[in-house]
Amino acid sequence: MMPATQADQRFEALVAWKAAYKAAHGKDPDIEHVKNALGVYIAHGTMPPVGNGNGAATVKMAEIVPLPVVAELVKTRKPRAARAAPATVEAPKVLTTFDPAAIPFEGEPISFTRIAATGERTDTAALLDDVLAFVKRYIVLPEEHHYVAVALWILHTWGINAFDMTPRLALESPEPQSGKTLVLEVLNVLLNKAIFSLNVSVAALFRVIDDGTRPILFDEVDAIFSQTKGDPGKEDLRGVLNGGYSRGATVLRVKMPGAVLQEFHVFAPVALAAIGKLPATLESRAIIIHMRRRTPDEPVERFRARIVRKTAVPLIERLTEWAPLYEDELRTAEPDIPDEIDDRAQDIWEPLIAIADLAGGDWPERTRRAAVAIHRGRGLDDSSSGVLLLRAIKAAFDKSGVLIGGSLKITTENLMTVINGNDEYPFGGWNNGGGMHSRNLNAMLKPYGVHSLDIKFSGGTRKGFEKVAFADAWSRYTPDLAPSPSATSATDPRLNRNLTSTRKPRKSRISR
Q1: Higher pLDDT, 263 or 391
Q2: pLDDT digits (tens, 9 = 90+) for 29-82
Q3: Residue 388: C-alpha distances to residues 282, 353, 395, 451, 481 (Å)
Q4: In what order do the strands lie in the sheet with 168-173?
């Protein structure tokens, strides 16, 4: 009799497992149970527990069949007594970890798990190019620098152990059907053990991400944050998402009985999709992409998850190879960050720029251009009312300021008229269309340390403001509007000290 083929041996293993399952549950397993069991066996050579409520019965298969790692479903059939000699099968790479939930059992099972590193250095630039090209096949983003950001963000999730910061990737749009969910679906294919969720409690979230390596893909998050008023659970969720961009952020809980204090780490990569705007505190930690509906002249391939997962297998294998090879190099990187973006933006872009510098070629320049373009492009809509008011006041001084005693001044009445009449700002619509009142103005300027004064104008003494009083606030909150030190020092020596101070070189926030 000819020796049994590997398929026959796998068949025998499956028959034994089905018998154990029936003994435990009193019925045959359905097709999905069979597929999942076979997927576990293919990867490990051990059938999963059948479970009967009083323990678990496990069928060991190590002695029955060697440990081939192949992606092939076994059809239920009777083994034949004699077969042709089995073909020689080349042993594939050995899996080092296995996540049964990662196998998409639609058709052939495919494993998206980490594979043993070969020790050969992967070309980071080529990998980034291929990830970017893969993304472009299925989604349309507004600008080229958004593709650059997404490709780098994907790689940073694989190398997350090297970083102390992880930017949130925020997908916002004014209307539905703008491609936000599709971006998350593509990310779900390319990321390592990502969690794709429409809703999640705080307790579930921080327990899932406690290891700091699982990316979170959060769709329709606007439905959650639009209902946060009076809901401490949703505010807690916002706090976890805000704090989790920085390594070391934790959530503390008391476990009863015994009042045992437990600490959960909430550092993890997060991508969010929302109609409208996310909370400002979350946006400040995010790379924001304003999605829009695709037009007919922007063709892409249709996204079919089952087919795309197969297509992505070689890319996934390269990503799993890449991460451990460069982790130490990225951990000690200290990239130069563009001064054109603010401190928070510099923090969140640092991991991506470190990867770009590692890649070399044109990636360092492209990445820095993308960082500046994305954060400069946020525009006035992303500013608070206070910052908008500072901008509107600057425009009012430029238009209607009066030079008195060597400095520009303006009456409160004239300032209000100019601000409320400027259609670039929202203040004319305040108070049911009556515009901003002087009491609104004074209340909003108080936190910036600016107050109205009694000033002598040509028509008499009136309430008003000096331009020099705003210099400190402009330098801190609207640096693009701040006057140069030489322009202010003559009128207020104190400002010369503030504006000419040199910022110390930034210390890298990448993990050491």
Answers
A1: 391
A2: 766 666 666 666 655 566 666 654 433 333 333 333 333 322 333 333 334 344
A3: 19, 30, 11, 17, 12
A4: 195-197, 216-218, 270-275, 168-173, 286-290
Kindly list the distances between the CA atom of residue 458 and the CA atoms of 214, 239, 397, 461, in Å, as whole numbers in the listed order. 67, 53, 17, 8
d(CA 415, CA 421): 10
Whether the CB-CB separation of 470 and 462 falls below 8 Å is answered with: no
| Element holding 172 (H helix, E strand) | strand 168-173
Residue 262: how many CB atoms within 10 A of its CB? 12
User: What is the rounded CA–CA span in Å between residue 194 and residue 211?
Assistant: 13
- The answer to whether 389 and 427 have CB atoms below 8 angstroms apart is yes
337-388 pLDDT, tens digit each: 998 888 888 999 999 999 999 999 999 999 999 999 998 756 545 567 888 8
Distances (CA, A) of 1 to 4, 6, 9, 77, 84: 9, 15, 15, 19, 11
Read off the pTM.
0.60
Residue 65: the pLDDT is 32
Mean local confidence (pLDDT), 151-168: 94
- What is d(CA 392, CA 408) in angstroms, rounded to the nearest whole number? 16
3-class SS letters over 405-470: CCEEEEEHHHHHHHHHCCCCCHHHHHHHHCCCCHHHHHHHHHHHCCCCEEEEECCEEEEEEEHHHH
Tokens at 400, concatenated: 């209607």
Residue 503 makes CB contacts below 8 A (sequence gap 6+) with none
Which among 274, 302, 286, 298 is positioned nearest to 141, based on CA atoms?
298
Q: Where are the beta strands (DSSP E) in 249-360?
A: 250-255, 260-265, 270-275, 286-290
Cα separation, 64 vs 55, in Å, equals 24
Helix axes 180-190, 124-138, angle to 10 degrees: 140
Identity of the amino acid at 58: T
**Which residues does 230 contact at the CB level (< 8 Å), separation at least 6?**
none
Question: Measuring CA to CA, how many Å separate 81 from each of 78, 219, 300, 378?
Answer: 10, 54, 51, 71
Residue pointed to by tokens 């402009």:
474
Side chain identity at 337, as an amino acid letter?
I
Q: Answer whether 112's CB lies under 8 Å from 43's CB.
A: no
3-class state of residue 50 by DSSP: coil
Asked whether the beta carbons of 385 and 443 are under 8 A apart, the reply is no
